[in-house]
Amino acid sequence: MSPAQIEIQVIAAMVAMACALPGVFLVLRRMAMMSDAISHTVLLGIVIAFFFTKSLTSPLLIAGAALMGVLTVSLVELLSRTHLVREDAAIGLVFPALFSIAIILISRFASNVHLDVDAVLLGELAFAPFNRIQLFGMDAGPAALYTTGGILVLNVLFLVAFYKEMKLATFDPALAAALGFAPGILHYAFMALVSVTAVGAFDAVGSMLVVAFMIAPPAAAYLLADRLSRMLVYAAAIGVFSAVSGYWLAYALDASIAGSMATMAGASFLASYLFAPARGVLAKRRMAAA
């Protein structure tokens, strides 16, 4: 393997783990589609922040994306609480509207800037090794390696620091509130983390692969594990497997890397869905026949 191939796989594996860990709680909270909404609407936060900073490298772009993710969640919950529309319908109303505004702003005011909608949606991992960091005149490696690695560390630190609170708020929010854990604040902090994860992975893999890694590995892990700690480990491992195997599938077929990785993530879920020891389709049929 060439150094570039190794770097692509390492970056993809880091993105997979960074997305799968918060994805576990999205799946458990039945908010899987919220990741799809956030991964699209954060583009509006990036665009607005760019208009203020005039720089695509400013850290304010990530801050704007995180705030837009929180705004997306707030608007969805605001609509849901009216009881006039269900949560899935609220998501379908909010995220196309915000995403469309972002596309209009890009096409109208930033058409000459390297802020391309297709690149945001699809990404291109093959180019990640070419954008490198130089320290004291020496090659320090791809910039995406540090970005995705930083996001992975941030997600791990957040889950380690608030593991008990997240666990309780996910399975029994009423008890969490009674114990003074402030599940509302924790919820919005978690959604901000999801937003940062989504925008941090945009440049390397695109939002479509972010959604695939946030949902498919945790959904597969849910069928394999009966404890939250194991589900987190399984989701991260399945994400890494999907990233590495997807790269080699793309290499063999000369196809899209992101598309192949998303395909392998879906195949991993399908395998769990069919063959999971206790919750798989075949296992349930055996128990029903016994």
With strands numbered from the N-terminus, the spatial order across the biggest sheet is 1-2
Radius of gyration (CA) equals 19 Å
What sequence of helices (H) and strands (E) makes up the elements? HHHHHEEHHHHHHH
Number of strands: 2
Sequence stretches where pLDDT stays below 50 over 5 or more residues:
none
Strand content: under 5%
Helix percent reads over 70%
- Sum up the overall morphology in one term: globular
Nearest-integer average pLDDT = 84
Structure description:
One of its GO terms (cellular component) is ATP-binding cassette (ABC) transporter complex. Pfam families: ABC-3. This is Metal ABC transporter permease. It is a multi-pass membrane protein. Belongs to the ABC-3 integral membrane protein family. The radius of gyration is 19 Å and the shape is globular. The chain has one domain (3-214). A hairpin with a 2-residue loop joins strand 1 and strand 2. It has a two-stranded antiparallel ribbon. Helix 10 (228-253) packs across helix 11 (257-275). With 290 residues, it is mostly helical. It contains 12 helices and 2 strands. The protein has helices at 3-28, 32-53, 60-81, 87-109, 117-122, 143-161, 163-171, 173-178, 183-224, 228-253, 257-275, 281-289, and strands spanning 132-135, 138-142.
